[in-house]
Amino acid sequence: MTDQNSAQPAAGRRPEPLPLTVLTGFLGSGKTTLLNRILTDPAMSDTVVIVNEFGEIGLDHMLVETVDEGMILLSAGCLCCSVRGDLIHTLEDLLRKRDNDRIMPFKRVIIETTGLADPAPILHAVLYHPYLSMRFAVQGLVTVVDAMAGAATLDTHEEAVRQAAMADRLVLSKTDLSDSGAVAALTARLRQLNPGAAILDAGDALDLESMVMSGLFDTQGKIGDVATWLSAEAIAEAEDAAHRRQHEHDHGHGHGHGHDEHHDHHHHDVNRHDASIRAFCLTSDAPVPQRSLDLFLDLLRASHGAKLLRVKGIVCIAEDPDHPVVLHGVQHVVHVPAILDAWPDDADRRTRLVFIVKDLDRAEVEALWQAFLGQPGIDRPDAQALADNPLRVAWGG
Ligand SMILES: Nc1nc2c(ncn2[C@@H]2O[C@H](COP(=O)(O)OP(=O)(O)OP(=O)(O)O)[C@@H](O)[C@H]2O)c(=O)[nH]1
Q: Cβ contacts of residue 231 below 8 Å, gap of 6+?
């Protein structure tokens, strides 16, 4: 078990959390190339990079031009499975050295994963570690997608789909080697897969600092732009567009429209990997009682935990509607990283929950949500029945 006190700062006061970003992307997509750019940008000086590789002998560290030799740490194995403990120890060790002035006071950490990594357990490991989650402000996930090989990789490798679907920022590399039609098609596919993430072109003069700082907190550990972080509007719009496409598609079939039209709709169909992962947004105009929210989240993670890749939200709590609660979850755990002093937009106090899920129907989550909002429908469970269910305790435990 991890010793929570092992990396406590020397001084008594709690230090500002340090930004931590996970950089991922499929094999050969251009992660190291982007990292080199980040490390040579003056705005990104004092960055510690943890490079993770398969195998005993890493190659990437030879390719990364470091600002300071001591700033590169390597671990053998895959971060998402075998060496999660190593990652935690590495981060604790880094903090200890920084707190004891044994290394320079770095300002942020970037973890570069292997090309095959599943980012969910990596984010999870840091977000839910009782001490690390206090010391690091997790910025989220930047995923590099190779514009040349990206579509074929998404077709054949589910890891690549998960990396793209969970990202806060998507960076298209090798656009200089790809034709514009292929880039546009890949961009459209990524937008459908992950409507909430900004899509950037590595060939552009990127603002690397804001690319890396894609999370809820800014460099001082202060709450940043919640609406951008949540991306609820973009996800809701994408859902509407998908609905319209589906409706037109069904309408086309029902009324025997021409073959060409069908052909065009089928052209937009997502492939089997993409189709198993989806993003959606649930909203409520009515404030949500704290207990209903707790029960909803409990039951959701207990019954669907492994299918929840990410959950983000802003919630109007009935007991304290002036101070919205921000939620952030990865897999089995959803936690409250912040309670805001005020609503980002006082005119819009709706509760918004954004989900990125795998093999889970929107309807199932929505039925549960409505049950806890006190709006049970036909064939839907009601909250009291769910709360009284004797199995609930067993599931939650
Ligand atoms: N033309 C071009 N080449 C690029 C671009 N980005 C990366 N490359 C090249 O693609 C190859 C792979 O890039 P890396 O940065 O090593 O990719 P990686 O994701 O770190 O690779 P792994 O660590 O093996 O998974 C290298 O030869 C890079 O020079 C780009 O935007 N344009």
A: 195, 196, 197, 312, 354
